[in-house]
Design goal:
- There is one protein chain.
- The chain has 62 residues and is of the alpha+beta class.
- It has one domain.
- It is 11% helix and 13% strand.
- The chain contains 1 helix and 2 strands.
- The protein has one helix spanning 41-47; strands at 2-5, 16-19.
- The protein has a two-stranded antiparallel ribbon with strand order 1-2.
- The protein is globular and about 30 Å long.
- It starts with a strand and ends in a 15-residue tail after the last helix.
């Protein structure tokens, strides 16, 4: 799947656009196709690492 993602915390320069494997939904989950998505202030705050320790992170983050 084509995605914008990051593999480490930092500024906008850590964002990458590329292909990632399509996730496999587990029991009780569904896979949906996304045509577009918005970006909110919390998104760049999380990307810059302001919430480290508050949420579990597994890179890459999509």
């Amino acid at each position: 799947m084509r995605a914008v993602y990051y593999e480490k915390f930092g500024g906008a320069d850590v964002l990458k656009v590329g292909e990632l494997p399509v996730p496999k939904p587990e029991k009780g989950e569904v896979l949906i196709r996304v045509a577009g998505a918005g970006v909110n202030p919390i998104d760049w705050k999380l990307r810059e690492g302001f919430a480290v320790g508050l949420f579990p992170y597994t890179f890459p983050i999509v």
